[in-house]
Design brief:
This protein is of the alpha+beta class. The protein has 3 helices and 6 strands, in the order E-H-H-E-E-H-E-E-E. The strands form 2 sheets. Strands 2-3-1-6 form a 4-stranded antiparallel β-sheet, covered by helices on one side. Strands 4-5 form a two-stranded antiparallel ribbon. The longest helix is centred in the first third of the chain and has 16 residues.
């Protein structure tokens, strides 16, 4: 399981407003979805927090996805006509090792 948080999301809401913040959340979700396998599940937990559940991983599969996600956010996102640099922080928990 990957726990993902958008860095400095409150700043976007404060500077551009909640409508732009909501559109950024959609853009972030779409960007993340593009990194996933069909068998992976992406969910918004609330606020600016997301989770990805992966099953059937081979060695290093979780690390590989985290690297892909981080790389995907090196390019800016466009939300409500604003080009925004969004970065994410990712935590990984593996079952049964971290259960």
């Amino acid at each position: 399981m990957h726990c993902i948080d958008i860095d400095h999301f409150k700043t976007v809401n404060d500077r551009y407003g909640h409508v732009t913040g909501d559109r950024l959340l959609v853009a972030v979700a779409e960007r993340m979805q593009g990194c996933l396998r069909q068998s992976d599940t992406l969910a918004r937990l609330g606020g600016d927090e997301f989770a990805v559940v992966q099953t059937g991983l081979t060695a290093g599969g979780a690390d590989h996805l985290a690297d892909r996600l981080l790389a995907a956010f090196r390019q800016p996102l466009v939300a409500d006509g604003h080009e925004l640099k969004a970065t994410v922080s990712i935590g990984i928990g593996l079952y049964p090792e971290h259960a």
